[in-house]
Amino acid sequence: MMRTKLLSIVTCLAMVSMARAGEVVATSISSNGGSASATAVGVGNGNAYATAAATNGGRAIADSRAVGIGRGLAVSNANAIADGGLAVSNSAATARGVFGGRAVAYSDSNAAAIRGVSISNSRADADSRFNAVADSRSSSLSLSRFGVATSDSHAESDGAFGGRATAVSDSVADTFGGRADSNVRAVAGSRFFSSAQSNSLGVSMSGRGRASRANVTAISRATNFGRNMSEAVKVDARGR
User: Fold this and answer.
1) How many domains does the chain have?
2) Which of 39, 86, 117, 142 has the fewest CB atoms nearer than 10 Å to its CB?
C-alpha cells in the first residue's frame, strides 16, 4: 500500500511538471517539522521544474537545471518527497543544436522516502550540429522505505552532418529495509547521415536486510549511412 501511494504521488507530480511549458518553477512544501528545498534554473530554451515536499521531520531536496542552446530544447523535472526520511532529487538537461542541427534533452528525476534515504540523479545531454538530430531521454526513480536507495541515469546523444542519434536511459531503485543501487547509462553517436539508437534499463529491488545492484551501459555509434542499435537490460530483485 505504501509503495502504491508513493508511486501515485510521484506520478502526479511528474504529470503536473510535464503539463507546463516555457516556465521555470520551484515549489517547496513542509509540515510537522519537515524541511523542504527546491531549486530550478533555466537557461535559453530550457524549462526547469523542481518540487520538494517533507513531513514528520523528513528532509526533501530537489534541484532542477535545464540549458537549451540554439535549436536545442531542454526540459528538466526534479521531485523529492520525504516522510520522516531524506529524499534528494537532482535533474539536469542540456540540449545544443547549432549550424542547422536540432537537439532535445529530457530529464526526469523522482525520489521518495519513508523513514529511509532515497537519492535520485538524472542527466540528459544532447548535442547536434550540421543538420543532424540528437535526442536524449533520461529517467530516474528512487523509492526507499526504512532503507537506502540510490538511482542514477544518464542519456547522451551526439549527432553531426545529417546523422540521427537517440539515447534512452531508465533507472529504478526500490528497497524496503535494505539497500538498492541502480546505475544506468545510454550513449548514442551518429555521423554522415547515419542512425544510432541506444536503449538501457536498470531495475534494482531489495527486501529487508538485503542488497541489490544494477549497473547497465548501452553504447551505439554509426557513420557513413550506417544504422546501429544497442539495448541493455538488467534486473536485480532480492527479497527477504
Assistant:
1) 1
2) 39
